[in-house]
């Protein structure tokens, strides 16, 4: 019940990362609930491009894609989200649907992984980049940590209830 509730910002409040994370969840939930009824079929691919040459090598490579997951999570690869790792196509994959999959967000679940652990169900991978303060041009860039969606190509028989997927 408290997973998407609004934070009460009050004087003397000790700022913790959890407060900003909760505020972000609230705003994401608010935006999704506000806009989802406007288009009942809002999710799916806007566009995608498969590297055809890789298919001849037995690999499925998603070179680029944009769209919206069923939970309202938008993705734009490669500009904001890196393309998923290539999927080595095995004979049993030939009769299966392949999904672009993202771990489902769960209350109190792991949201972010710092080491890209293969078995993790975190939705995001952390990466570092240099950013400048937009209001202080004279200061140099600083290293900050940002997050990118952790999407995978998953064959139908391997898609568990911990993941949502676009066929």
Structure notes:
This protein is of the alpha+beta class and 167 residues long. It has one domain (17-166). The chain has helices at 17-35, 52-55; strands at 44-50, 59-60, 62-68, 74-77, 87-88, 98-103, 112-113, 124-131, 142-149, 152-155, 163-166. The longest helix has 19 residues, at 17-35. The protein is globular, with a radius of gyration of 19 Å. The mean pLDDT is 91.
Major β-sheet annotation: 3 strands, antiparallel
Beta content: 25-35%
CA gyration radius, whole angstroms? 19 Å
Uncertain runs: none
What's the number of extended β-strand segments? 11
Q: Widest sheet: strand order?
A: 1-3-4
What's the overall average pLDDT, rounded?
91
Shape: globular
Percent of residues in helices = 10-25%
Terminal CA distance: 31 Å
**Total domain count:** 1
Count of runs of 4 or more consecutive helical residues: 2
Given helix and strand content, the structural type is: alpha+beta
The helix/strand series, from N terminus to C terminus, equals HEHEEEEEEEEEE
Which secondary structure elements does this structure contain, and how are they paired or packed?
Blueprint: H1 17-35, E1 44-50, H2 52-55, E2 59-60, E3 62-68, E4 74-77, E5 87-88, E6 98-103, E7 112-113, E8 124-131, E9 142-149, E10 152-155, E11 163-166
Parallel strand pairs: 7-8
Antiparallel strand pairs: 1-3, 2-5, 3-4, 6-10, 6-11, 8-9
Summarize the structure.
The chain is of the alpha+beta class.
